[in-house]
Amino acid sequence: MYVRDAKNREEVWLLDRIEEMGLDETAFRSRDYVVAIDEESHKKAGFGRIRIHKGGDEPVCELTSIGVLPEWRNQGVGAHVIERLVEYAGDEGFDTVYSLTNASEYLAQFGFERIEPAQLPDPLRDRLATKQENIQPDAVPLRVTADRFEVPGHLRRRFKQASAGEPEEPEPEEGPEDFGIDPDEATYKYDTGD
What we know:
transferase, GNAT_dom, N-acetyltransferase, Aminopeptidase
């Protein structure tokens, strides 16, 4: 398993997954995304985005639209997507990385801390309000300094051994045929013949 920059040809795949998962596609640009790929099957397992907001005193970096396909969850894929995004932010000169999300407990394990909306830079205050109105009503602001970000060891081990599980399929509905009954020929105990 590895995480790499998204390619332009993956735009449709990304948009489809974002829509399926109900994630934020505001100001979508495929070049802002990274994608987790299984080395053996070459299947995509997860993705995430870094969004740079310009318009305040200084540019601001936000992690957004992070998703892991159901068959790859609980294997450290999301952790490594986030790690790559935070590394990218640090490479771009951002000391602090923000996220506006309803997954605060998940991000806390990497060093993200919840902050008050008033502590957000101006561009993110407006974005938080918009996100709460349109996408995630329970989104809260979080931040981490790039040098305090850390992936826990157990998630690193899971990621090294990640493999696609079977997505859960709903149980089929049982019908008369499942019990050896031909529904076209069957008579019923209380058939009145009407």
